[in-house]
Structure prediction request, 320 residues.
Amino acid sequence: MGIDPVLLRNQCRRTLNSSDFPELGKRIPGKVRDCYVKGDRRVLVASDRVSCFDVVVGTIPFKGQVLNQLAAFWFEKTKDVAPNHVLSVPDPMVTVGRECTPVPIEFVVRAYLTGNTSTSIWKAYDGGAREYCGHRLPDGMKRHQKLQAPLLTPTTKAEQGEHDELTSRDRLVRSGVITRARYDEAEALVMKLFAVGQAWATTRGLILVDTKYELGLDGDGKFVVIDEIHTPDSSRYWYAEGYTEAFSRGEDPKSLDKEYVRRWLQEHGYHGEGAPPTLPDDVRCEAAQRYIETYERITARQFEPATDEPLARIRRNLGI
Prediction:
């Protein structure tokens, strides 16, 4: 498995940064996906954009394909646990789904005391906080330590260009964003999804450390999983092998996710404010290798790169 390094470097010149398909309906650009809405259908085009600190910082070859196909894998695997929006996957970078009303909350589930951003559970704990998103944390914990049980630590959903903010069950209920009963229903749903994700990751030699879920409401007011699930963008994965040794030495576990890009940016003085530094091709290719390895590890399938010009291929596959 793996990918030809020469092909990967050549693909740096052919990444999909943006799309414009007016035939598909109203365009709603996101940090990574361009969505098109017409009637009761939503077409999600997974671009190659990479977002860190809620800012688009560049593109990574084959990233959109990995995200779209890995999300499709997980949606299929979890469809009996929670309903999702997927109707079809007509292109390596495109998913067609049911249009749902988005719930204005990001449901973040964490199983370890980790993270490098200013809003991460580890940064809060290391700074002396013992309550995080409404959860009490015990004294004496160490970085990257497994929590006693996974925690749901919700955030608000910011507009593009803005930053998501930490919140809690009580704050969301008090603000009227969601009722207590509906929050508890959503929590039970995402915790079931997380348990399935963790169990499968274990069989593939990985640890699903944390992830975020986005939910929508269908026409009957029922929760539906939307956007993506358990991808390297929405989730943190560590290799299971070596975690215990790294933790005991106080080192970072070896990871498979976009944390590599985030750390490179931090090492170059960028933390989400102002214009980001340009990602060198070496960094873009290394990140792509990690995305592709994540796909192959999780699915046990070889990644088949779609190297043709993406906009023309998408038009052809969608018949537009």
In short: The CA atoms of residues 29 and 35 lie 6 Å apart. The first strand starts at residue 26 and ends at 29. The mean pLDDT is 95. The chain has two domains: 5-100+260-318, 102-249.
